[in-house]
Amino acid sequence: MTYCVGVLLEQGLVLASDTRTNAGVDQVAISPKMHTFEVRNERVIVLLTAGNLAITQSVVNRLKMSVDNNLSDSKHLHNTSSLFDAAGLVGAELRAVFESDGEHFKNHDIDFNASIIVAGQIKGEKPRLFHVYAAGNFIETCIETPYFQIGETKYGKPIVDRVVKHNSDIMDVVKCVLISFDSTIRSNVSVAAPIDLLIYRVDSLHADCKQRITENDPYYSTVRQGWGAGLKEVFSALPSPDWC
């Protein structure tokens, strides 16, 4: 399992993913779940992946091979005309992997489990954010709910639900996202640092602010400690019930 968050704001995008992979308690490793496709000053497309690692790696590799082959009559993530089309390409590759491997998964009683967040900006349109499901279909975020979370979402969801709005300050959202990761990591051993974080500002058309945040990162430690202490302080200040 993993945890990924994508937030679309007036100021840009905040994208984050953990890096833990596990196939049992004694097979734990680090693998990136954030994949960037960029043509400087023309487009930035970022994928955040959750679910079966074999499936998502196959999808990402197929997308990369399409870019590398760069056939004149084929669409790929470096020549799509919109983020909508890019999400469609990701969905098509998910379906292609299912057609290739789905029956084998079924024969071994393994669910075909994968979710991908597609985010970014192509010159000529505003930044956009999509959630692509295992079936290859997808939805786009909206002003009322400007974020998607995939993977192990239940522990980090409450803080994001309470804090994040489309017009929130981008750095406030960075704090919120890191707190949501801290809550998830505390409650689920299948999610862990390092955390890959990307901050993208509108019309920059360059993924120039990407951080890998370790467990001992000074800022992350400050946020975690401050949030924990603040929760205890607020809890202590709440009145006790007078029912009995």
SS strand fraction: 25-35%
CATH C-level name: Alpha Beta
Shape estimate: globular
Rg, alpha carbons? 19 Å
CATH topology: Glutamine Phosphoribosylpyrophosphate, subunit 1, domain 1
Number of domain modules: 1
> For the residues shown, what is the average pLDDT?
95
Number of strands: 12
Instruction: Tell me the helix content.
Output: 25-40%
Question: What are the secondary-structure elements, in order, as H or E?
Answer: EEEEEEHHEEEEHHEEH
List the strand order in the largest sheet. 10-1-2-11-12
Structural class: alpha+beta
Can you tell me the CATH architecture?
A: 4-Layer Sandwich
Task: Report the major sheet.
Answer: 5 strands, antiparallel
User: What quaternary form is this?
Assistant: single chain
Unreliable segments (pLDDT under 50, ≥5 consecutive)? none
N/C terminus separation:
44 Å
Q: Find the CATH superfamily.
A: Aminohydrolase, N-terminal nucleophile (Ntn) domain
